[in-house]
Specification:
The complex is a heterodimer of chains A (about 180) and B (about 425).
Chain A: E1 5-12, H1 26-29, H2 57-60, E2 66-68, H3 81-89, E3 93-96, H4 101-109, E4 114-116, H5 120-125, E5 134-138, E6 143-146, E7 151-154, H6 160-168, H7 171-180
Parallel strand pairs in A: 1-2, 2-3, 3-4
Antiparallel strand pairs in A: 1-5, 5-6, 6-7
Helix pairs in contact in A: 6-7
Chain B: H1 5-12, E1 23-27, E2 30-34, H2 38-49, E3 60-63, H3 73-89, E4 92-94, H4 101-107, E5 116-119, E6 133-136, H5 139-148, E7 150-154, E8 158-164, H6 173-184, E9 193-197, H7 199-202, H8 206-214, E10 223-225, H9 231-238, E11 259-264, E12 271-273, E13 281-283, H10 284-287, E14 294-298, H11 299-302, H12 305-315, E15 325-329, H13 333-341, H14 344-350, E16 354-355, E17 376-379, E18 393-396, H15 399-408
Parallel strand pairs in B: 2-3, 2-5, 3-4, 5-6, 8-9, 8-11, 9-10, 14-15, 14-17, 15-16, 17-18
Antiparallel strand pairs in B: 1-7, 12-13
The chains are: A alpha/beta (about 180), B alpha/beta (about 425).
């Protein structure tokens, strides 16, 4: 399978004590007050808008940036907007030890690589991964690297269907590819 | 090798025996969308498929339950977008007068034992209560399923939760469920199917099973089942249109579980989840005396007839404390009708409660109000995340604890009334 490499600057979602924030739910990512919005480009401004300490994320993030979060990222509701708001900002990937089940699917279906990496907890706690670092994520091999600090780490690679959907640019383009075959 | 319930249901819907970890294309019996997510599905659908027909118009439905009837123009527009799509495609709409979609689909027999059903409601795994594999998904997934009747799915492993002992007489299924949330947290059954067994849950009626299965979402699980039936449950299932007991799916005796967890609930007192996490659960004694401003009885977790019967037993002939607002929202029209027939609505009303039309009520923005900054609410809902129902603090509890607390103006146990 063809390798797909994502490389970018990271934002590590930590609390005021510097701890990686766990269980960030979809209301913290994209509050239900904005659910009536159906135009993706309008969703970016609300990304992480209800997460203490990160309300200004949409102004700070640049296209190509990567988010690092604690376990069970995207718990809660099924809203696609909680994925789409990051796509609107051009976020290239989200890395966390684990994701909410629905969130994980939604992200794959929208071709936002959600990378399961149990090691990030230790990396962040040991000061080996911090906001501003440049990381490299080859989606097929699962062998990541913090380029800034020259530290290698592993993540769980995507399975066949998941990677095919991401490579195609999402579930819809993937389905159109299937139709053509 | 035997199979667990989820493995059996998925195997029957993808044409091959499956094992955990496999990713399969799953055939869907019913696909639904609600008033949040639904308009996005329609928009995606028109972009991707134009006016092409859905896979089967008899198996695609809309359920409006969140902002019902619409209280803002945007939601009114969004609902109309769905109605118009449904009309063009010949789809059923369970409109703003019907109640919570997952419950309506159970009552209507769309969600039956052994079936597969997906929709834009993250608590659709509640359908495990009737032995149906229900799953909430985002609007991209649901759009694809509208068109194809299929979805990709990774077969989850199954954890068996063996519950031992009997809780105290004042503990309801909600108290047991909150205790399981506390014990299992968001890690122990994360991304797994769960089978709950043991006498304490086998005795649960349909309402109790609904309460338990609905909160598997908060445990980060995929779906929960209660395989063992009882006589009362058999009767409730028999009342579902098209139901046959032969369709009930149980695990094979030699089914392969990833883990078996034993949880003792002997003598369990009422439980309360404190702000802002559903698994931050304490025994009632630890939170007694906490002042409250409002109470909410309803939601997909506790909006059934039995839930209101329990509340009414406490409220009967008494008045909610001055300054406290108690909001009651039956899950469906059918529930509302029964509450009306049994005189329960009258008891609630005379106690001072606000009674609303069926729907998701206090869990969704808008339907029956929000909490203001500094407001303390005690709710029978399933989530108390920061900011979800406004700027106030939300405690989660059973209908009996909410009713008792509204009489006292502070959190108390029903046994103290």
């Amino acid at each position: 399978m063809e390798e797909k490499i994502i490389q970018g600057r990271v934002w590590v979602l930590v609390d005021e004590k510097g701890q990686l924030i766990e269980d960030i739910d979809t209301d913290q990512i994209y509050h239900n007050a904005h659910l009536h919005i159906t135009d993706r480009q309008l969703m970016g401004q609300y990304a992480l808008g209800n997460l203490a300490g990160w309300q200004d994320f949409s102004q700070k993030a640049r296209p190509g940036d990567i988010i690092i979060a604690g376990r069970n990222f995207g718990a809660g509701s099924s809203r696609q907007q909680a994925v789409d708001c990051f796509l609107a900002l051009g976020i290239a990937a989200i890395v966390a030890p684990s994701f909410g089940a629905i969130y994980f699917r939604n992200a794959v279906n929208s071709a936002l690589p959600v990378i399961r990496c149990p090691e990030v907890e230790t990396l962040v706690n040991d000061g080996q991964l911090a906001t501003g670092d440049e990381v490299r994520l080859p989606l097929v091999s699962g062998q990541g690297e913090n380029i800034t600090r020259q530290i290698k780490f592993n993540f769980i690679p995507f399975s066949g269907v998941q990677l095919a959907i991401i490579q195609a640019g999402g579930l819809f383009p993937y389905a159109h590819q299937l139709d053509k075959r | 090798m035997g199979q667990t319930i989820i493995e059996k249901i998925i195997s029957a819907h993808c044409g091959q025996p499956v094992r955990p970890g496999e990713i399969v294309w799953l055939d869907l019996d019913v696909v639904s969308a609600r008033d949040f997510g639904g308009p996005n599905v329609v928009k995606n659908y028109e972009q991707e498929y134009g006016e092409q027909p859905v896979f089967d118009p008899t198996r695609v439905v809309f359920t409006f339950d969140l902002c019902v009837p619409a209280c803002t123009l945007k939601y009114a527009d969004n609902q109309q977008v769905c109605r118009s799509f449904a009309q063009r495609h010949g789809l059923r709409v369970f409109d703003v007068d019907c109640g919570i979609g997952s419950h309506v689909m159970m009552e209507e027999g769309l969600a039956g034992p052994g079936k597969t059903l997906v929709g834009t409601d993250s608590h659709l795994n509640i359908l495990g209560a009737v032995g149906c594999f229900g799953q909430g998904m985002g609007d991209v997934d649901i759009t694809f399923s509208f068109k194809t009747g299929r979805t990709w799915f990774e077969v989850p492993g199954t954890v068996k939760v063996q519950i031992t002992g009997q809780p105290s007489p004042w503990a309801s299924p909600k108290d047991l469920t909150l205790y399981l949330c506390k014990t299992l947290g968001t890690k122990k059954v994360a991304l797994k199917a769960v089978e709950f067994v043991g006498e304490a849950v086998r005795q649960f009626t349909l309402a109790g099973r609904i309460t338990l299965c609905s909160m598997v979402t908060e445990m980060a699980g995929i779906i929960g089942f209660v395989p063992e039936l009882n006589e009362n449950m058999n009767k409730e299932l028999a009342a579902i249109p098209g139901f046959s007991l032969e369709d009930w799916v149980g695990p094979d005796p030699e089914a392969d579980y990833e883990e078996v967890l034993e949880i003792d609930v002997s003598g369990l007192p009422p439980q309360v989840a404190v702000p802002y996490l559903p698994h931050k659960v304490k025994s009632i004694d630890e939170v007694k005396g906490t002042r409250i401003d409002s109470g909410f009885i309803g939601s997909c977790t506790n909006g059934r007839v039995e839930d209101f019967r329990q509340a009414a037993a406490i409220l009967k002939g008494k008045k909610v404390k001055d300054g406290v607002i108690l909001k009651c929202v039956p899950a469906t029209r059918q529930v509302y009708q029964t509450l009306l027939d049994e005189g329960i609505l009258e008891i609630l009303f005379k106690s001072g409660a606000v009674i609303s039309n069926p729907g998701c009520g206090g869990c969704a923005e808008g339907h029956i109000g929000l909490t203001g900054e500094g407001e303390v609410q005690i709710s029978t809902g399933n989530r108390n995340f920061y900011g979800k129902q406004g700027k106030g603090q939300t405690y989660l509890a059973s209908p009996a604890v909410v009713a008792a607390s509204c009489l006292a103006g502070e959190i108390i146990s029903p046994e103290d009334i």
